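User: Could you write out the 3D structure of this protein bound to adenine? I've included everything you need below.
Assistant: Certainly. Input first, then the structure.
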Amino acid sequence: MKKINLVERVSCHEQVASSEFVRQLPKTELHLHLEGSLEPELMFELAERNNLDLPYASIEEVKAAYDFHNLQSFLDIYYQCADVLRTEQDFYDLTWAYLLRCHEDGIVHIEPFFDPQTHTERGIDIGIVFQGINRALLQAEQELNITSGLILCFLRHLSEEQAMECLQQAKPYLEHFIGVGLDSSELGHPPEKFTRVFSQARELGLYAVAHAGEEGPAAYIVSALDALKVDRIDHGVRCIEDEALMQRLAKEQITLTVCPLSNTRLKVFSHMSEHNILELLDQDIAVMVNADDPAFFGGYLMQNFDALIEHLDMTRLQGVKLALNSITGSFMLADQKEKHIAKLLDIASQ
Ligand code: ADE
Ligand code: ZN
């Protein structure tokens, strides 16, 4: 895609952006775990509907437990919470609630993640999960004008054989997802552990993405690109530790799906004012903004943008660049991308 000179196209480009300006811009979300959008209120509702006991007495108690010191301390609670998801209707309700939030935030397209192994390990059929999620995604296309492509993530703390088994189980549902991803505990589980399963997925015509360089080193970003041949990197903020990698990411315009609130809640950065997203953006790296696990990290997409405005003085130009990167970095078809970009430039110039 031809590079657009945004300085010429964005009015008052050096001004700090307003939240309302960013909300209006067409944006995509490419790094969102559906299980991570399970709000405590819905968790209690589903626990009651499925006759389950929760280890928490109240919503306040749940929120107090969301005090994380690293990725693993979050994942332990996150997998426990997902246990309330049992039926097709549960997966539909979870996905629909997220889509309503997307609509409020001006999101026009999503490529959300789900972790089938978290559910199949508990005896839930993968078909139930696909059907519930897809019913909501189809409804959103018709009623909210939000398009989507679902991404199936393998859990990297499990073995490659288990990931292979998961891919095998998902094969009858190939028309329901567009790509595979890699998430869960990063340290000690380098991307190359999953080389064969990613190769098989790509042979099936699926896109590939992977979490890398969140807690793990910059070398994991390199091996996600070279061994897994991913199309995008999820997080990737630790690329800043490797100058050659930074140059490669900029040259090849590899999208990094960055999650600011997640990174501060999981202590990847000690404070939002320390976050490097705008520094990467200004070095021509194709970063874009996402919520990751909004129910656990204190906010959906617009709250992530609001944090960049408040703590990093994000300008209108930077806001438009981030929105543009979210469109170009997606797996939408070229004509769909062009339609959203035209609207983006129109709003940006006003
Ligand atoms: N699963 C859900 N959120 C995640 C994250 N931020 N990193 C790795 N795995 C995850
Ligand atoms: Zn994530």
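The mean pLDDT is 98.
User: Perfect, thank you.
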